[in-house]
Specification:
globular; Rossmann fold
Length: 228
């Protein structure tokens, strides 16, 4: 699947797992909210899965402007925060939120889950991914050392779900060590060498294989729903 404006140069394992994670039946013909849409990197996938209408929100006006410039059909973008969604209750069939939870203000995670519950229709679906709280993943994350980039355990996510009264359908972890070294290689190339990442093709291949396996340590994936 080809996607423009992704936050990486090739569809590595995380993106491919997101495609597998979001079930077509919960997108086709549905009204979908994308929390933390960035420049719109996930909308192509949602449209290919048959979304009827997509609304993407992000706190950054500059990335929303970039997303709007793509002029995708049946996609609307708004500048808004994940913890105060500017929509009435029961507005969406499906909500997606990928690699965003760790970026909202600290200790506001429960507020975001509560907002997801509020804007979902009864029976609506919620899909999320976020970095996993595993000791190796944490210490190998440059952003953790620099800005205390957050990671979450399955227990953390289950607590947010319980408080928000959302039902857990599936909660699991995927991705492994190759992905860690892929990211480190990409960061090193971006910040130091300004060239192509070292061992890029090999690490990319390994990353894809790791996410396709049945377990991992890198990212938490959640599928939840709002009870009817």
């Amino acid at each position: 699947m080809k996607t423009q404006n992704k936050p990486f140069s090739d569809p590595w394992g995380l993106y491919q797992q997101i495609v597998r994670h979001v079930q077509n039946k919960h997108v086709a013909g549905k009204r979908v909210l994308d929390i933390g849409c960035g420049s719109g990197w996930i909308e192509d996938m949602l449209l290919e899965k048959g979304a009827k209408k997509i609304v993407g929100i992000d706190i950054s006006e500059s990335v929303i402007k970039k997303a709007k410039s793509r002029k995708l059909k049946n996609v609307q973008y708004k500048t808004a925060t994940a913890i105060d969604l500017p929509f009435p209750k029961n507005s969406f069939d499906t909500v997606v939120c990928f690699e965003v939870l760790e970026h909202i203000p600290q200790n506001t995670e429960q507020k975001m889950f509560d907002e997801v519950y509020r804007v979902l229709k009864p029976g609506g679906q919620f899909f999320l991914s976020t970095p996993h709280k595993h000791w190796f993943i944490v210490i190998a994350d440059p952003a953790w050392w620099l800005i205390k980039h957050r990671h979450y355990s399955l227990k953390n996510i289950r607590n947010y779900l319980s408080e928000a009264k959302l039902k857990e359908n599936r909660l699991y972890v995927r991705g492994g060590v190759s992905t860690v070294f892929l990211l480190l290689s990409m960061y090193f190339a971006k910040w130091i060498t300004h060239g192509r990442p070292l061992f890029y093709e090999k690490l990319l291949y390994s990353s894809r294989r790791e996410y396709a396996k049945g377990n991992g340590i890198m990212n938490v994936f959640l599928h939840a729903s709002k009870p009817r």
